[in-house]
Write a structure and sequence with these properties.
alpha/beta, Rossmann fold, 3 domains, 5-stranded parallel sheet, 14% strand, binds thiamine diphosphate
């Protein structure tokens, strides 16, 4: 179903077309753009509140700046739907985040208007600064470079690294701070307090009250006293704002705060800013979900990415199911952590800005004093955990697998080299789905297993996750990494009693002959389907859930290679350096020469789509594994 655009939007196929509108039409255009986003996301799903919040900003930016020559960099990119719609992708927008369709984030390959590919947070200032310096080196004086960054993304350290350099380089960089007080969950931390303070002028208001209070006492100065004090007040105000302004202290000219929903005013301001040379920041105050009541006034976290919904009632669609459903892995993590933390007073929970996404929120509600949201600060989350561990605390540091890439040196330098007992729970490991290449947790098995003092485990189901978490918090040295996927597990009755698993032991799921499938993690459930299917055809092959990539269960592996001369390894992770590679290394070191076929994420980018679609593309969905088994067994079955 194609969504019908309003009259003005229907004529806009590029920013050039937008510029043909009279300024007086911009408000109506914004209404249409907002409605188009509501109509599309309610039917097709995707990110929502953030794009609604920047409709006016997006319109004003494309109206004033000469994109794509002027370069517009969106931070994270989940708010760029309006940008995509204005820049010629309106009629493909129904394919957003679908297999083979538009990406949910700006992507260089997708459009010349997407100046930088994004998905992970806080990169916009550095990237736009790089572009601005390149323009300077090329003597391209008029070219503009704009980074649009949220108050959540501004909490990431790299944003400050960018501002630190920007303040001493005189280039055409404009930072637009889109301040809506929200990350995915409510923004936290001292920076948030600071931004709230300058938008509401608490410090200034206090000073003004003091001045007027004094005025009452000095009325003896006569009738001009009010005027005099008022002048003093104005000059103190500008002095205070300058002195206390964090961004000015980075040598950035600070403008604002301004209403980010007043499109006419934004157009005026951007026209002015274009003529002011050097690095500058415009502080815009916006509201997430603006213009769609349920999102604006309701739970903004839910409306960050609500899935499909009834746009009239605001009711979010739920998938109906008669049978009790297995829980999401993230919820098993959250509830299990509370169970463990209630018994062990040293356990502490840490999440970098994903309380809802990781379900750390369950501990934040149950035991708030021992659970921390540290903002979008993965590096800090890891080193903060290391610090806690030096003092005998047992940190469960939960980070999405792909975001953990940010904190790699901290894992090595601050945790593993120091042999500290930190537990890393890597959520969204493996193919993550509709968020695409930036969000797939493809590399963790490879990048974690090469670090000494680090156990690396992956559960095949909920019960295994609980046992691994239980095992990880027992007294030990070194890091313990547990990676699990996005989405549901397989056990509706998941609250199984927890027990210790001997580190570095796998388990036999099914004995067989000729061929063995070795799996790691939840993807083992696909192998169960395959061995059952083959069994029904009279073919009995073995299946082993290895559970640990590091240390490998060498005893079990010797046993397997003595009994099978054909092996398939399956992992929901990258083939280079991953689980299959670990098995090949074991074979090489021990002189085994079985015929091995490795299945996993190939050495190329896998884009977005549903998880099963992408598993299929990579050849390790149940059908792919089944066919590989037949190939290995040299059985040809005529294709239907
Ligand atoms: N960590 C990294 C490195 N990248 C991410 N994309 C995330 C976490 C997950 N994430 C996506 S959007 C978001 C987070 C934490 C919140 C961003 O907040 P803000 O920049 O204020 O944008 P808003 O959604 O409020 O418009």
């Amino acid at each position: 179903m194609l969504i019908k655009p309003g009259k003005l939007l229907a004529e806009v196929n590029s920013p050039e077309d937008l510029k043909k509108l009279d300024k007086s039409q911009l408000k109506a255009f914004c209404d249409e753009l907002r409605q188009f986003i509501v109509d599309s996301v309610s039917v097709y799903g995707g990110h929502f509140g953030a794009s609604l919040g920047v409709v006016e900003l997006t319109t004003a930016l494309h109206y004033v700046y000469n994109t794509p020559d002027d370069q517009l960099v969106w931070d994270v990119g989940h708010q760029a739907y309006g940008h995509k719609i204005i820049t010629g992708r309106r009629d493909q927008f129904h394919t957003n985040r679908k297999y083979g369709g538009l990406s949910g984030f700006p992507k260089i390959k997708e459009s010349e208007y997407d100046a930088f590919g994004v998905g992970h947070s806080s990169t916009s200032i550095s990237a736009a600064l790089g572009m601005s310096i390149a323009s300077k080196l090329d003597n391209n004086k008029d070219k503009q470079h704009i980074a649009v960054i949220g108050d959540g993304a501004m909490t990431g350290g790299i944003a400050f690294e960018g501002m630190n350099q920007a303040g001493v380089l005189n280039s055409n960089l404009t930072i637009v701070l889109n301040d809506n007080c929200m990350s995915i969950d409510p923004n936290v931390g001292a920076l948030k307090d600071y931004l709230t303070d300058i938008t509401t002028s608490h410090t200034y208001n206090k000073m003004r009250d003091d001045v007027w209070h004094l005025l009452g006492k000095i009325s003896k100065f006569g009738p001009n006293a009010r005027e005099v004090v008022s002048k003093v007040e104005t000059s103190i105000k500008s002095f205070l704002l300058k002195q206390s302004n964090l961004f000015e202290s980075f040598n950035l000219r600070y403008f604002g705060p301004v209403d980010g929903h007043d499109v006419d005013h934004l157009v005026e301001i951007f026209n002015d800013l274009k003529d002011i040379p050097g690095p500058k920041i415009l502080h815009c105050v916006t509201r997430k979900g603006k213009g769609y009541k349920p999102a604006e006034d309701g739970n903004q976290t839910t409306w960050h990415a609500p899935g499909t919904f009834d746009k009239i009632t605001g009711e979010i669609h739920k998938k109906a199911s008669e049978k009790p459903q297995p829980p999401k892995y993230q919820d098993v993590f959250g509830h299990t952590l509370v169970e463990l933390a209630e018994k062990n007073k040293d356990i502490v929970g840490i999440t970098p800005a994903m309380p809802s996404g990781s379900s750390m929120k369950i501990m934040m509600e149950a035991i708030p004093e021992r659970a921390f949201d540290v903002d979008i600060a993965e590096q800090h989350a890891v080193t903060f955990s290391a610090g806690l561990a030096t003092q005998g605390k047992i940190p469960f540091c939960n980070i999405y697998s792909s975001f953990m890439q940010r904190a790699y040196d901290q894992v090595i330098h601050d945790v593993c080299i120091q042999n500290l007992h930190v537990i890393f729970c890597l959520d969204r490991a493996g193919i993550a789905g509709a968020d695409g290449a930036t969000h797939h947790g493809a590399y963790d098995l490879a990048y974690m297993r090469c670090i000494p003092n680090n156990v690396v485990a992956a559960p095949m189901n909920e019960s295994e996750l609980r046992n691994m978490m239980y095992t990880a918090q027992l007294p030990r040295e070194g890091a313990f990494t547990i990676r699990y996927p996005r989405g549901k597990g397989v056990m509706p009755d998941w609250r199984t009693p927890m027990k210790e698993i001997e580190v570095g032991t796998g388990r036999c799921i099914k004995q067989g002959k000729d061929l063995a499938i070795l799996t790691i993690g939840h993807i083992g459930n696909y192998a169960v389907e395959v061995t059952e299917r083959l069994s029904e055809q009279g073919i009995e092959i073995g299946h082993y859930d290895m559970r640990f990539v590091k240390p490998l269960d060498e005893e079990l592996l010797h046993d397997i290679f003595k009994n099978y001369d054909k092996v398939i390894t399956v992992e929901d992770g990258c083939l280079p350096g991953g689980f299959g590679s670990a098995i090949l290394e074991f074979m090489a070191e021990n002189g085994y020469s079985a015929k091995v076929k490795r299945l996993g994420i190939p050495d190329r980018l896998v884009e977005h789509g549903e998880q099963p679609e992408l598993h299929k593309e990579c050849g390790y969905d149940p059908e792919g594994i089944y066919e590989t088994c037949l190939e290995q067994l040299e059985i040809t079955v005529p294709k239907a």
